[in-house]
Amino acid sequence: MTEQRINPLDRDFGAGALLRFAFPTIFMMVFMGMYTIVDTVFISRLVGTEALSAVNIVCPVIYATVGLATMLATGGGAIIGRRMGEGDDRGARSAFSLLALCCVALSALIALLGLSFLDPLVRALGASEILAPYCRDYLGVLLLCTPFNMLQVLFQNLLVTAGRPGLGFGLTLAAGCTNAVLDFVFMGPLKMGIMGAAIATGLGYSIPAVAGLLVFMKKRGSLYFCRPTWEGRVLAEACLNGSSEMVSQLATALTTFLFNIQMIKLAGEAGVAAVTVMLYTQFLMSTLYIGFSMGVAPIISFNYGSGNTRRQKRVFGTCLRFIGLSSLAIFALTMIGAPVLSAIFAAPGSTVYQLSRAGFRLFGYSFLASGINIFTSAMFTALSNGKLSAGLSFTRTFGFTTIGLLLLPRLWGVDGLWLAVPIAEGLTVIAALVLLWRGRKRYGYL
Predict the structure, then answer these.
(1) How is residue 228 annotated by DSSP?
(2) Residue 228 lies inside a defined structural domain of this protein
């Protein structure tokens, strides 16, 4: 007799039910952003702003690694969700198991190559003689922890697809608290410097990674590990479909690199520290949109697979209202709270404080448009249209943002650097709205 399970995605989500379903993922991502901010605050206060600058110098490597894991997670999650919507639970489990194996193999390769070429890598990232020792200590430890990092990204995404977003939040909460406590212990009483921060971060990665392995080994619910069938097309489709998220992370790596190179010319190491403040705060604010998009993506994939356009339209309408209201709220918070946000990282009156406070007044306009851009890209990934999603992400980041970072500082100096992202987001939102309008009949969300 075939075992029948009720899929938690197979129901009619009203506005309240949708937000309740997405809330654990939203809270999980916001909390991740918060403990990332806590990490940088501890580094700035307990080690120094030069160490803070070093963190931003090596961030492109971390972004690229997370991008690969996110590509497998979101692209594969769309395939898994679609198969579940079609009633093919066995195929969904096989695809999931195959993606997990590939994630482990890829992460081991990245760690080996990165550690083998650590010094050339640090120099290529633009580290000055002052910052290079900090960069080597921090990046070396995090490269060792690459398998934990990539697996925790994979499991945090796919716990949502498995209909267990609350568990993903709980694991993230445990990881964040562990990271924050160990940050204080390692950099405070134990005086381990920036290497202590990296070790704390790596141990934080390990909690969702190890717990996720244990959870998915148990044959509970619709999604768990099984002996996978080799399907090259699944990997190809996952990579293609998740390429927008990969593009976003690679672009973040590139734009961080360009921010660092441009700012060190304009304002030295203090300027790089101010960039770190700005970009980490941007990450925190964007986690609301990212978490919401991750939370609703499995529902969108399931409705698409089952062909239920009535449910899809209702979900889409709720999503647009949430994104619009939250964008206005985050913009207002950034404009009002710029002095407080700057003072968290640097002493009032310092060069880093003055640069970041002025930057928030310009950079904050990006939050009016970034929400709809993030959601639109994630939605097309959930609808298995990775090409469209990747095209939007590429235009937003490699296109508009990169060009802005290269050209605007020549016109307006530091102000031009801060304006590059808001202008890029504003131009991208026009393209996003056009794509949403054109795809309304094909995907049935309007």
Answers:
(1) P
(2) yes
Q: Which two tokens stand for residue 342?
A: 């700057």
Q: How far is CA 342 from the centre of its chain?
A: 22
Q: What is the pLDDT of residues 403-415, one digit of tens each?
A: 999 999 999 999 9
Higher pLDDT: 80 or 28? It is 80
* Angstrom distance (rounded) from CA 320 to CA 305: 21
Residue 291 lies in domain: 15-443
Q: Which residues contact residue 430 at a Cβ distance below 8 angstroms, ignoring those fewer than 6 apart?
A: none
- The count of structural domains within the chain is 1
Indicate the burial class of 307 (C-beta count within 10 angstroms; 0-12, 13-18, 19 or more): exposed
pTM of the predicted model as reported, rounded to 2 decimal places = 0.73
C-alpha distance across the termini of the chain, in Å: 40
Q: Is residue 8 part of a domain?
A: no
Locus of tokens 């110098």:
57
CA distances from residue 9 to 69, 260, 276 in whole angstroms, order as listed = 24, 43, 39
Write out the two tokens for 405: 């970072």
**156 membership: H or E segment, kind and range:** helix 146-161
In a domain, 327, yes or no: yes
